[in-house]
Write a structure and sequence with these properties.
Layout (H helix, E strand, L loop, with lengths): L4 H12 L7 E10 L15 H19 L20 E6 L2 H14 L8 E3 L5 E3 L11 E3 L18 H10 L3 H9 L1 H5 L2 H4 L13 H14 L13 H19 L9 H19 L6 E6 L1 H10 L18 E8 L12 E8 L10 E3 L8 E3 H11 L4 H8 L7 H14 L10 H27 L24
Parallel strand pairs: 1-6, 2-5, 2-6
Antiparallel strand pairs: 1-7, 3-4, 7-8, 8-9, 8-10
Helix pairs in contact: 2-3, 8-9, 10-11, 10-12
C-alpha cells in the first residue's frame, strides 16, 4: 500500500479534529391523541380494540426510543426495565376513551418486566405477579367539565367564558358564512350515506366535523353489508370531508388576533413548560411526562407555537394516536443536568400510529428555521403564550365564579387600592375614603338605632354556619 502525502494530511487532520460529544437526552414530554373510537354522534363513545392497538404501538415506539437499554436516545438515568414512579408523570381527562388510551399507551412505554413478576414473602411464600409482571403507572386525572369524548366540539367545555364567546364569534364571521353557503349542496348530497344519523337541517358545514367523524368511523369498521354505500366514500371525497372539517375546527380552536380562543393550548403549554423546567430544577429526578388529550388541544397548541409556519398540515385534524414530543437535549460533557445555557429543546410530531420504521418528524418552533431552540429562548417564548396559574386563567377567561371567586375579589381590592392618589388640598384619596367611610358608618348606625327603636325589632344571636364549599371551574379537553 502506497502512502501518499495527501492521505497523510487527511489522516493528520482527522487525528487533530476535536471529538464531538454525543447528544444526551435529559428529559421529554409526550402528548398523544386517543386511539380509534366509536362515532361521537351515536353517543356512549368507547375506545375500540383497534384504538387500543394503536396507542400501544405508539407507546412501544417511545419505549424503544427513551427507555430501552442501548438506545442512543435513552433518557439519561431513566429506570429500565422497571418503572420508577418518581421519574414519570402521566395524566388524562376523566373520560373513558382518553383514560383507556393513556393506560394502553403506558403499557407500551413500560411493558411487563419479568424482574418485577414475583417475590418471596418473609414466611417463604412465593407470589407470582399477575399478567407476567404488568407494571402499574399512576394516571392522574386532569380537570374537565361534564363534557366527554361522546360530545361534539364545544369550546364551552373548558368553562372559559371569553373562549366560548370567541369561538362562537367564528359562526358570525364572513369566512364561516361563505363556507356555509358554498358547501350547502355538497353536504346535502351526502344524505344517502348518512343513513338517517343527521336531519336535513343538520347536513351543513356547521356539522362538518361530526359528519366527517361518522363517515370515517363507518368506513373503518363497517362492511358493505352494514354500510351499503361504503365504496362511495372515495379517497377524493374523504379528503374533501377532512379538509372541510379541519377548516372549521382550526378556526374554532385558534385565532391569531384573539388568543383566548386557544385557551386549551395555552394551558397545555404551561403544563409542558412546568414539567420540563422541573426536570432541570430537580437535577433530572423527573424525566418523562405523558399526557393524553384531544385533536382540538393539538390545534390550539400548534397555532400558539406557530407550527403552521413550518407546515400547513398543522392546521388539519390529526389522526388517532398522533403524538408530539418535546425533548430536552444537550451536547455538554459529563452527566446530570448542565447549565441551562447548554440545554436545547427539540419538537417532533407524528401523525397517527407509529408502526414499523416510522419516526416522528422534527419541526422548528415559533417560526424559526433551526430544529433546536435554546432552553432560555423556549422558556421566554412559551411564557408569552402559556397559562401558568389559576389567576392568569381566570383573568384571561373573565371568569368570576368557582375557583375564580378569590381571584376576582383580590382583583377588585387591588383596583380599589390602586385608584388611591393625592387629591386637592393635600389630602389623599385613601385618607378621604377612610374619613368618608367613618361618617357614612355613623349615619347608618344612627338610622339603624332609630329603626329598631321605632319598629320594635330586636337583634337575635344566630349560630354561625360553616364556610361554603365553592365548586372549581375546570379547564377541559375538547375532543
Amino acid at each position: 500500500m502506497r502512502y501518499s502525502l495527501q492521505s497523510g494530511l487527511i489522516l493528520a487532520a482527522c487525528i487533530a479534529a476535536p471529538v464531538v460529544d454525543a447528544e444526551r437526552v435529559l428529559g421529554a414530554y409526550l402528548y398523544s391523541r386517543h386511539g380509534d373510537r366509536t362515532a361521537k354522534v351515536l353517543g356512549n363513545t368507547q375506545l375500540t380494540d383497534l384504538g387500543y392497538h394503536e396507542v400501544f404501538s405508539s407507546g412501544s415506539f417511545y419505549h424503544d426510543r427513551y427507555i430501552a437499554a442501548g438506545s442512543d436516545e435513552q433518557i439519561e438515568g431513566i429506570s429500565e426495565p422497571i418503572v420508577n414512579p418518581n421519574q414519570i408523570s402521566a395524566s388524562a381527562p376523566d373520560d373513558a376513551v382518553l383514560q383507556n388510551s393513556a393506560t394502553g399507551f403506558l403499557q407500551g412505554v413500560y411493558p411487563p418486566a419479568l424482574k418485577a413478576a414475583s417475590q418471596t414473602l418473609g414466611n417463604g411464600t412465593f407470589i407470582q405477579s399477575p399478567l407476567d409482571g404488568y407494571q402499574i403507572i399512576q394516571l392522574q386525572t386532569t380537570d374537565t367539565s361534564q363534557d366527554s369524548e361522546s360530545s361534539a366540539w364545544l369550546q364551552g367545555s373548558s368553562d372559559c367564558s371569553k373562549a366560548t364567546v370567541s369561538s362562537n364569534n367564528y359562526y358570525l364571521s364572513d369566512s364561516y358564512m361563505s363556507m356555509l353557503a358554498s358547501t350547502k349542496d355538497f353536504y346535502t348530497s351526502l344524505s344517502p350515506m348518512l343513513n338517517g344519523a343527521f336531519g336535513a337541517d343538520q347536513m351543513s358545514f356547521k356539522n362538518a366535523y361530526t359528519i366527517f367523524d361518522y363517515l370515517n368511523v363507518g368506513y373503518i369498521h363497517n362492511s358493505t353489508k352494514t354500510f351499503p354505500l361504503r365504496d362511495n366514500l372515495t379517497t377524493e371525497l374523504y379528503g374533501q370531508l377532512l379538509q372541510l372539517a379541519s377548516n372549521q375546527q382550526y378556526n374554532l380552536a385558534f385565532n391569531e388576533s384573539d388568543p383566548v380562543r386557544a385557551i386549551d393550548g395555552a394551558v397545555l403549554a404551561g403544563e409542558i413548560l412546568s414539567q420540563l423546567n422541573k426536570t432541570i430544577t430537580s437535577d433530572g429526578k423527573t424525566k418523562l411526562g405523558v399526557q393524553f388529550g384531544s385533536y382540538g388541544t393539538f390545534m390550539s397548541f400548534f397555532g400558539l407555537m406557530q407550527l403552521p409556519v413550518a407546515s400547513v398540515n398543522f392546521t388539519g385534524i390529526c389522526d388517532y394516536a398522533s403524538t408530539f414530543v418535546l425533548e430536552l437535549v444537550t451536547n455538554a460533557t459529563g452527566s446530570g443536568i448542565p447549565s441551562t445555557d447548554d440545554i436545547s429543546v427539540r419538537f417532533m410530531f407524528h401523525n397517527g400510529t407509529i408502526t414499523g420504521s416510522d419516526e416522528p418528524t422534527v419541526y422548528p418552533l415559533f417560526g424559526q428555521r433551526n430544529d433546536l431552540i435554546s432552553w432560555d429562548d423556549f422558556k421566554t417564548q412559551t411564557e408569552k403564550i402559556a397559562i401558568l396559574s389559576d389567576d392568569q386563567w381566570c383573568n384571561q377567561c373573565g371568569n368570576t365564579g368557582g375557583k375564580c371567586a378569590s381571584s376576582a375579589s383580590t382583583s377588585s381590592t387591588s383596583d380599589s387600592t390602586g385608584s388611591s392618589s393625592s387629591g386637592s388640598g393635600g389630602m389623599s384619596r385613601a385618607v378621604a375614603g377612610v374619613i368618608g367611610a367613618m361618617v357614612t358608618l355613623a349615619v347608618i348606625l344612627g338610622l339603624e338605632a332609630l329603626f329598631f327603636l321605632v319598629g320594635g325589632f330586636r337583634i337575635a344571636k344566630r349560630r354561625k354556619s360553616g364556610p361554603e364549599m365553592s365548586s372549581s371551574a375546570a379547564v377541559a379537553e375538547d375532543k
